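Z., the sequence and structure:
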Amino acid sequence: MADLNVLIAFDAATIVERNPNASRNPDVPTQVDHDLIYMTTRHDHIIGNSGAELNLRAEPGDSIRWRETTISLSSDYKALLYRYVSSDSGHTLIRTPEIEVIDGIYPMPKEGSEGKPDFVTQNYEDHYWRTTVKKAGKVVYHFYFQILDHHRQLQGYFQWDPFITIENP
């Protein structure tokens, strides 16, 4: 059994720029161009290439965790996953993903410490979406996400559809 961590990076600034009339209805999100979403995990768990259509290889018993960010590291816009929808309607292949909120510690270089390993830390709350793989098969899923600007103003609701291929060990 493996823990598979999937990083999702959104080009939020371009998504907002290309979708000035993005959905304001969380139940009917705007479909996003796949060239603006980057997903990756360890290479031995990727079928094909990394990207918005990441086809993730997993086995029964594996745990999958998805974390989101923006390519600007959330400085201008924040992206937040808010709903998971799947072709596995009976949830026979994977358990319904849940949000896990955890405490974290973030190291930061000390101001004026250029060239030195000096740092300070900040406490924060972190989160990810987590599921457990139950049996072999293929799951097409959608994550719905919202983009907020640095004033916490909603820029729209969006979606896209990656894959998980579950193989027997």
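The radius of gyration is 17 Å. DSSP finds one helix and twelve strands in the chain.

Let me know what you think.
H.
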